[in-house]
Write a structure and sequence with these properties.
mainly alpha, 593 residues
């Protein structure tokens, strides 16, 4: 299923907008707040902002005009031109203009340097961002909480949360620059982004000890993360703690909670939260409704999802692309491709609502129904709509071609995606490898695996399992063993499926002793066999007329809470028709009846 996501409702820019509404002065917050709101770094100059700067052309014109004035305007006026450009995400342009300022003899202040750091952070150049700190000291300035918070945010943007935490600790231990609520919330967001909710909650607990009160954004960040990780009880407990502190929940809070309970199918709790937010005077927005539509569709309740869309329209809330994508995906999951296409066509009539995700969903639906030509037609129409297929789109269609046995077309599409600048990922290779193995093209599969190993793209356990299964199915058990034995040196740990496939191959090759050795080895290496593993080796022994060993393993399987599957039971029933039956096996069967 093609996964759909809204942009995070807890982005740093949303934090900035909250801070602005609360009237937080720039000098006591992060520079990012000012960058989104074009405030002056000097309160006495607040009336001098360039309100006409709304695009890069205007900004460049004003900047050039200011450079030619004599005397030159103050650095504050230049900062006011740079800030809107940061908001417009023209980071390289901002860096170029700051260089021109320095060349013109304009001495930067805290705000200028913070803007520069932020731009480097946004361009994933933390090395340059950190180097700007030297300019503070050269100019006789001290980095402040805004500076260090910006750097922490830069590390978080690059998923370098450990580095962000180290810088945070230096702030706390150093004592000269204590973190504020935005600093704490930024690092908390980083911990949540990597799934470390425990660290986020611990940091929340340390805020008051550092003389810093958490706010709605701090709590919303953790509540959202807990909900997404299906830790809904913990999210609700934190919600209660927040309310107990006198912090009123907002729409973001309720959206996060509703998404969490909906993901678990807790419809009664979702309804309760909807009533509660209405009683608080907080009304659902397009995001709230889209959460409900998506959850209903994932549960196969498309009729209810369509009812929600109707309620949205009646309330004057226009469904967006995410809403319609969810509805379309719901129809696809039910195999209702005509209805899915109707939703797609409706989006087309509404203008530029169709995006790459929309096309990928419809392509996936057609592929699942084995309507590959219709899927391919949607794919070919994408450039006509100004859309560029992404890796997910290519993977979906390549998989469809492979499963339909149309390998040449799959391989052609594989080459085409690279020609168009879309790099294949591990999943792309896995799809092609699976198609080659299922169509008995093992030499090509091995060649592609070696090509993958030669690239910087590291094969995963799924990759090797696919090839091992292909080799076993082709009777090339020794080659499968060689590949299997080479996994650990490559840093790849076989999982229960890999072991089970290898055990199956050994059994088919009559290597039952080796198969059972592998069964014991997997446990020693921390990979417990499952019911499928036991059934596989039991069938191997029965097929090779070793009913005594099979019976022993049946007992072991039963003790572990697993039972025989249909294939195993069929073989056992067949044994009963023979003249002699192992008494232990007979007793086990009687116990199961």
């Amino acid at each position: 299923m093609v996964k759909m996501t809204h942009k995070s409702v807890l982005s740093f820019s949303s934090y900035c907008s909250y801070s602005s509404r609360r009237g937080m002065p720039f000098l006591h917050s992060t520079p990012l707040v000012a960058l989104f709101h074009s405030q002056s770094s000097n309160p006495t100059k607040s009336g001098e902002t360039h309100r006409g700067v709304s695009n890069v052309e205007d900004a460049l014109k004003v900047f050039d005009e200011m450079l030619h004035r004599r005397p030159l305007p103050s650095v504050v006026r230049f900062n006011q031109v740079l800030a809107p450009l940061v908001k417009l995400k023209h980071y390289p342009t901002v860096l170029s203009l700051t260089s021109q300022m320095l060349l013109s003899g304009i001495r930067p202040n805290h705000y200028t340097l913070n803007i520069t750091i932020n731009c480097y952070c946004r361009l994933n150049r933390m090395d340059y961002a950190l180097s700007v700190l030297a300019h503070f000291f050269k100019l006789g300035l001290q980095p402040d909480v805004a500076t260090l918070t910006t750097l922490i945010h830069g590390f978080v943007l690059q998923n370098r949360v450990a580095d962000a935490a180290r810088l945070f600790r230096k702030m706390v231990v150093g004592g000269y620059c204590q973190p504020n609520v935005i600093t704490f919330s930024t690092l908390i967001k980083g911990f949540c982004a990597i799934g470390n909710n425990t660290a986020a909650i611990q940091l929340l607990g340390k805020m008051e000890a550092n003389g810093c009160q958490p706010d709605i954004i701090t709590f919303n960040t953790i509540i959202d993360s807990l909900g997404k990780d299906t830790l809904v009880d913990e999210a609700l407990n934190l919600f209660s703690e927040m309310v107990g502190r006198g912090i009123a929940p907002d729409l973001v809070t309720y959206n996060s909670l509703i998404q969490g309970v909906c993901n678990l199918g807790q419809w009664k709790e979702a309804t309760r939260l909807l009533y509660e937010m209405a009683n608080q005077g907080i009304f659902p927005d397009v995001f709230t409704f889209s959460i409900l539509v998506d959850a209903f569709c994932k549960d196969g309740m498309v009729v209810q999802a369509k009812n929600v869309v109707q309620i949205m329209i009646q309330r004057g809330i226009e469904p967006d692309t995410v809403t319609y994508n969810s509805l379309m995906d719901g129809h696809c999951l039910r195999g209702e491709m005509d209805k899915a296409k109707q939703v797609f066509d409706l989006m087309v009539t509404k203008g530029s609502m169709v995006d790459v995700q929309s096309c990928s969903i419809l392509i996936n639906g057609y592929c699942k129904q084995k309507k590959i030509d219709k899927a391919y037609n949607i794919f070919k129409e994408m450039p006509l709509r100004g859309l560029v297929p992404n890796t997910v789109t290519y993977n979906t269609l390549i998989d469809g071609f492979c499963k339909a046995g149309r390998l040449q077309e799959a391989e052609k599409l594989f080459s085409e995606m690279q020609d168009h600048g879309q790099l294949p990922d591990v999943q792309t290779y896995n799809i092609i490898l699976d198609g080659l193995c299922n169509n008995q093209q093992l030499s090509e599969a091995i060649e592609l695996l070696r090509e993958m190993e030669g690239n910087k793209l590291k094969p995963n356990v799924v990759t090797y399992t696919i090839v091992i299964e292909g080799l076993c199915n082709a009777g090339e058990v020794q080659s499968a063993k060689d590949l299997f034995c080479g996994l650990s040196p490559k840093g790849v740990q076989p999982d229960v499926r890999t072991y089970t496939i290898m055990i199956s191959g050994l059994c088919k090759g009559g290597l039952l002793v080796e198969a059972e050795e592998m069964l014991r080895e997997m446990e020693q290496k921390g990979c417990s066999p499952n019911g499928c593993t036991y059934n596989t080796i039991i069938r191997g022994y029965i097929n090779h007329n070793d009913t005594s060993r099979a019976t022993s393993l049946i007992e072991e399987m039963s003790e572990r809470g697993f039972s025989g599957d249909a294939s195993t039971m069929e073989l056992i029933v067949d044994l009963l028709s023979k003249d002699t039956v192992d008494p232990v096996l007979l007793a086990w069967l009687k116990d199961k009846v």
